[in-house]
Amino acid sequence: MKTTHRRLSSSFTKLCERLSSFKNGDDNIRELQAVFAYMDANRDGRISVEELKKSFNTLGEQLSDEEAKVVFTEEEKKRKMLEAFRMYIDESEDCITPRSLKTMLMKLGELRTNDDCRVMIKAFDLNDDGVLSFDEFAHMMMR
User: Which of 48, 69, 127, 142 has the most CB atoms at less than 10 Å from its CB?
Assistant: First the structure.
């Protein structure tokens, strides 16, 4: 499994290197949309296992069904984690603050003070900035 992960990582690195030449802004979005459209051969708005394998083949990489499924499983985990993270943040923020944590806990029926929430955040705040980034939240959830 580690060999598969290493090979997938290398393949993604190659794909990212090709995509890294994109400029910021609208051109970047158009180019990424073009890449997605290319990969989405049947135009159903999703990239299937077969379409992913074909795209990797275009890059000179062979991707087995098992490897492609690993990619989809990992992406699904990330998507669900991001969905959970977004439940705890305010719309104007990109991190979990003591205030946003308190708000969500209240919705769940848990009454906590701001100080309680600061203590909870501090336990997983890896860079001591007083808030939880997505990476810190994911790290906390994986423990």
Answer: 48
Instruction: Give the model confidence (pLDDT) of 39-50 as tens digits.
Output: 888 988 888 888
7 and 74 share one domain: yes
Do 58 and 8 fall into the same domain?
A: yes
Cα torsion 7, 59, 18, 137 to 10°: value is -40
Q: Give the Cα separation of 55 and 69 in Å (integer).
A: 14
Q: Which of 129, 132, 37 is nearest to 89 (CA)?
A: 132
Does residue 49 share a domain with residue 6?
A: yes
pTM, entire model: 0.58
Query: Is residue 106 domain-shared with residue 38, that is, in the same domain?
Result: no
| Total residues found in the chain within this entry | 143
Residue 39: both structure tokens together = 């990969």
Query: Which residue segment(s) compose the domain that 16 sits in?
Result: 2-78
Measured CA angle at 71 (ends 73, 34), to 5 deg = 120
Indicate whether 83 belongs to any domain. no
Number of separate helices (H) and strands (E) present in the chain: 7, 0
pLDDT of 96-122, one tens digit each?
Answer: 999 999 999 999 999 999 999 999 999
